[in-house]
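Blackboard transcription, Thursday session:
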Amino acid sequence: MPTLDFHPTGRHFLQIPGPSPVPDRILRAMSLPTIDHRGPEFGALGLKVLSGMRAIFRTKHPVVIYPSSGTGAWEAALSNALSPGDLVVMYETGHFASLWQKMAAKLGVQTEFLAYAGSDEHLPNAPSWRRGVQADMIEQRLRRDTDHRIKAVCVVHNETSTGVTSDIPAVRAAIDAAKHPALLMVDTISGLACADYRHDEWGIDVSVSGSQKGLMLPPGIGFNALSPKALAASKSAKLPRSFWGWDEMVEINKDGYFPYTPNTNLLYGLDEALAMLQAEGLDNVFARHQRWAEGVRAAVAAWALPIQCADPAVHSPVLTGVITPPGVDADAVRRLIYERFDLSLGTGLGKVKGRMFRIGHLGDSNDLTLVAAIAGCEMGLKLAGVKLADSGTQAAMTYFASHPAPALLRKVA
Amino acid sequence: MPTLDFHPTGRHFLQIPGPSPVPDRILRAMSLPTIDHRGPEFGALGLKVLSGMRAIFRTKHPVVIYPSSGTGAWEAALSNALSPGDLVVMYETGHFASLWQKMAAKLGVQTEFLAYAGSDEHLPNAPSWRRGVQADMIEQRLRRDTDHRIKAVCVVHNETSTGVTSDIPAVRAAIDAAKHPALLMVDTISGLACADYRHDEWGIDVSVSGSQKGLMLPPGIGFNALSPKALAASKSAKLPRSFWGWDEMVEINKDGYFPYTPNTNLLYGLDEALAMLQAEGLDNVFARHQRWAEGVRAAVAAWALPIQCADPAVHSPVLTGVITPPGVDADAVRRLIYERFDLSLGTGLGKVKGRMFRIGHLGDSNDLTLVAAIAGCEMGLKLAGVKLADSGTQAAMTYFASHPAPALLRKVA
Amino acid sequence: MPTLDFHPTGRHFLQIPGPSPVPDRILRAMSLPTIDHRGPEFGALGLKVLSGMRAIFRTKHPVVIYPSSGTGAWEAALSNALSPGDLVVMYETGHFASLWQKMAAKLGVQTEFLAYAGSDEHLPNAPSWRRGVQADMIEQRLRRDTDHRIKAVCVVHNETSTGVTSDIPAVRAAIDAAKHPALLMVDTISGLACADYRHDEWGIDVSVSGSQKGLMLPPGIGFNALSPKALAASKSAKLPRSFWGWDEMVEINKDGYFPYTPNTNLLYGLDEALAMLQAEGLDNVFARHQRWAEGVRAAVAAWALPIQCADPAVHSPVLTGVITPPGVDADAVRRLIYERFDLSLGTGLGKVKGRMFRIGHLGDSNDLTLVAAIAGCEMGLKLAGVKLADSGTQAAMTYFASHPAPALLRKVA
Amino acid sequence: MPTLDFHPTGRHFLQIPGPSPVPDRILRAMSLPTIDHRGPEFGALGLKVLSGMRAIFRTKHPVVIYPSSGTGAWEAALSNALSPGDLVVMYETGHFASLWQKMAAKLGVQTEFLAYAGSDEHLPNAPSWRRGVQADMIEQRLRRDTDHRIKAVCVVHNETSTGVTSDIPAVRAAIDAAKHPALLMVDTISGLACADYRHDEWGIDVSVSGSQKGLMLPPGIGFNALSPKALAASKSAKLPRSFWGWDEMVEINKDGYFPYTPNTNLLYGLDEALAMLQAEGLDNVFARHQRWAEGVRAAVAAWALPIQCADPAVHSPVLTGVITPPGVDADAVRRLIYERFDLSLGTGLGKVKGRMFRIGHLGDSNDLTLVAAIAGCEMGLKLAGVKLADSGTQAAMTYFASHPAPALLRKVA
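(Written on the board underneath:)
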């Protein structure tokens, strides 16, 4: 059995923005014996988790569950709805938006990659990675597309590489204002079940998500939530697809089954995760993440280090990116923190490699865990020679102590 | 938490040909906390399971691990190695061979689907589903392909829908005899780690497999084992692919990491499964399955019911298909057995729906479990009004009692 | 981690009359993190399991939960209710009744050990071990005790060493008929939650039980259920006691807590076990065990081997003892079965060592598991050279197939 | 299944001085299926854990494992070695020493309870609870006992209620200096596997311990380590005993078995715990606890709150008691901290109820977990209106950052 003993004692602090820590209840649920995926018990389970996921996406339309990563769910979205050579508009909010764009290109889709055009003091090579989607740029681009060559607009809801949560209703409004028929595809891999998200109300055509963030599961499940318009588009879309095909999935899911072998034990975990989220209530879940994010940002402010997200209006409730001072290799700091304090932080990806690190504050966490994570960062930054204006740990403690969460104590059933 | 209590007491007998029963050790391993898939501990784990899987496939070349089902691994094989419109020869051994053929067609590959041309007494509509791959048919077809339009030959090693284990070296010999450059792709989803399989020695270019059969894991991992020739072919192959792309995988796997989030907790299980298989020794694993299969076939012979596989030379060590008498709905018998005896059997798929059921005898099992499964079948068949020539349970007991397995008792480490 | 791999593959068949197989749900529940046994969450748990255990014992009076084995619960019963030199009447139904008698003597209690006085064909040295408690012998003894020197009558409800379930209401009636004030103490370690048992209605003063039988838990919890009369007796009883003391336990239990550290994780399992038993209903639990016992006895009858319990009126629903023919070492047969078929059977204890083995049919089991166990016995007996009249496996299959259990299929909540 | 959801998200911080947090590896090990405690696999396990425990106690003589709490192991020590009316000298270091004394009295042993006779500024009612055993007082008492009426000296190694680790070799030296034959009995329930302890070298006759502290298991196992002299004394000792009897235990343990049903699943956990401790090395384990304790005491010093242990020479490496200012109800602070920050602290027991709380820093922990616990205390104390001189959190961070632990990173096997 893997012993996971790189650090000999105590619990590892997994503060990357996903996979997030998996609650014991879910790990236990996942360890129940595998059953026949064609038997009656499985069908009942399938219907239950499909229905539960519709509630999480806030949709009445089909949700598709893939035995894959979130990356697979991206591919599913593109390959079901588009044809070779189709033009899509994507928006560069960070590394994951960029990877999605590269995937689209690999699949034979023509992409236009919009980006914030301004400059940036701290990250001059990546100003677009510090801000949310500029909906007006999308609107302008769509208005120019008078013959409707653009088939889809693809944006990331919560950009995991930066800690920016874009305003999706504004994107919808932009498309509507341009009176453009393009599909709206949204990656909410790290946003779902952390930040407010409303597939139907916000007029999203394809939502893409995964299991290992707000749903508190290990990685291994990808999701698509669909609109009727997306389903209609898939009837004529011509990118080759089989494994990802919505049509068979949606049809066979009606009875709770899947066209090929699903990953049963992760679905046990999903069932448990849904029970936990339902018991808490989605609005409470979102408020919990907002409060944590404020505590963490109070710490970063005390350190006087720049937050990756330059626009307070779109600070992520899920993670906070911290830019290290010029000359300080953020990955060296991360490594020191990992080795000395058994704390995993998110690395700077792509254009911001070595320039920042990310603190995840999502899923199954609590105040003290976050204080510990901040303390670990603070000790590590100091050991690395970074001058900090003040104690972020103290600032977070002050914030959490003076902003009590809603009553937490539960009754035994 | 799911309670899995459709049957209120006792352990379910999961005798479908996969997912096979998952050993407690593996379920426990999978329930360890999820770690950072970009951290140093993960890299060590990744290298370990990649190396272990090469030993299972008996290859020195790269093995690719997907967070997907085996169906995904099929798609990976096709989309990496082929271009739109390429011609491939496939061979109909059963339902899964047929599904693979349909997938190829969906992906834009041109397929020729060879099949045994004879007649069959018991299943006149599916004679090809009772026999293994006829290598001479493949050889003849390839010899006719003088301009080498055929890019690949795709066959199923152990056809899970029928219980036929085709002779793969014979297929290799056929291709060689025809001096044809086509790639040889083999689905060994249910064969791997149950029946002898040698990727390198048998000259296979792409092997396709999954986690939920001989590897004793829950579903959720797909594998490709590659030859240098397959890797070379992928450089120029033009089917669109991103998630399935071998190139990034093989490159990043060198350090034990993955290009996108892997399903970490299943990899914990894979590590434990590899430890168990290594401790037993692959040859012992294969002998164990052969012995079980003989015991089960002794039971079916006592009942005097036809075995789905009509050719004793290719009887599967993994599962045994049992044809029910004309007029007896095999699925009704299965349902009765499930409800009365808490035993899951494999259904007849596709062309043989309702005409047969399948007894899985693979992975984490033992003599008494198989005797119980046979007893469950026997009671159910009788309750369904099927006349049985003799007691299969007794026949299996006689077989197992008179054919002792090699010494089983272990020492404590 | 222990690998439990004395047998390399498949699930062990644990058919001893306890510890019985522990359901996955309970093992998972037990693996949740340990909490503070003085905190509010523990108090809620404590109240829940104490209340649940009163329902299992069918009592309104206190139940005491010890972090100990059932043997400890015996000592608790004696040391709380008796004084040094007190006279108690015990009844020899088998090995465990004998051990309890020895314990009483060790603790300084004077014992009279009644036993069936007749002869026995098969086990001439242990005729009393093939029959239940003869209540009339107890009545006669008590009637002679005109000065009430006898302080307690101690009997075993379900004698685990023999498979005899004595008639406890008859013992109560005997005491009442003799108008004797002695306490009635009953060991129902293996009877509870398998066979009907009613602490209050049957007028029992101290019931003794354990976790590893009908409650389907691992060993490690002992129980006492008390009557007001027993509690009153404990006020003046003078055997030294501290760990086992009822007084502090009952007092502190009122709030769900314990006077010393309880074994928290087993209590998690107890909570789950109670939920399972409540969902099924105790009367269904008892009927289920009766049906299994009949199936197993049908097998033994087919073999034409004598059942340890000579009196059909008191055949145990929990286990069946099987006497081997003269000259056949039952333990050699058991060892052969263990090594060849991965099946654990109960050994003959004390006076019947080597002369019999025991098949447990209790707790978390089902028809096919019992058929497998019987098949394992049958193969092993034959390999050991025992002539069997007919196939017990077939007889059990016929019984189970023709006596369907009540509808088992459940709905998903 | 218990949901343990009094706090809806994140991991509870269990910082009581036992039960200590149970590592995932141990919880997983404990959830393996229960086996036959009379079968060969169990015997191998039994021998392994018995041998492992001798290494932990640093003894070559028998160690006895009870399915009980540590309280039971106390009773075992007394009832095996003593006779009714025997005189024993005990020493009041705190609540647990007092409970042991009460137990001895209940069992019919005559006790003299020595205590530090000085005064104390902060806890005038409990000066003896702030200091370690005064070996000279014991020596003087023994010297006066010229006719050797005193049969045993009983002291607590690490007093869990106060955080004082007494000097056991000094007690041994005192007994030797007095040339007294009394047995030396030591409670090291919370000391074992946290603080240095040497049963043989220190001349201890009976060591008493439990599973839920340094061994990192859930509660439910009690231990006695014995000297030949203790075993000899038990031959003539007359306190009634059966469950606790060393004689049968030691005899039957020779083959790895137990005289009555052991708590098998906790023994799986013990096997895993021993593997973890052996891998780390006991001296590293002790150094780890010392370092943590220094960090925690640095925090309390920064707060300028008195530490319960007034003598720095005997500060416990296992836990630290913190005295709250006069008028501040420590339990009210603890409750606030529990409700607001999901952190469990140890309560003040007996004479110090409401006057102090205890921070456990033992077993499966690490720097960040302790920083979090200290931060939780700090926030709670402030919210309760306690004036703190300085930030203890900062002090602990400074300590841990400037005192790196020995290299922690491990290699994958």
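Lecturer's comment: Chain D touches chain A through 54 residues (CB under 8 Å).
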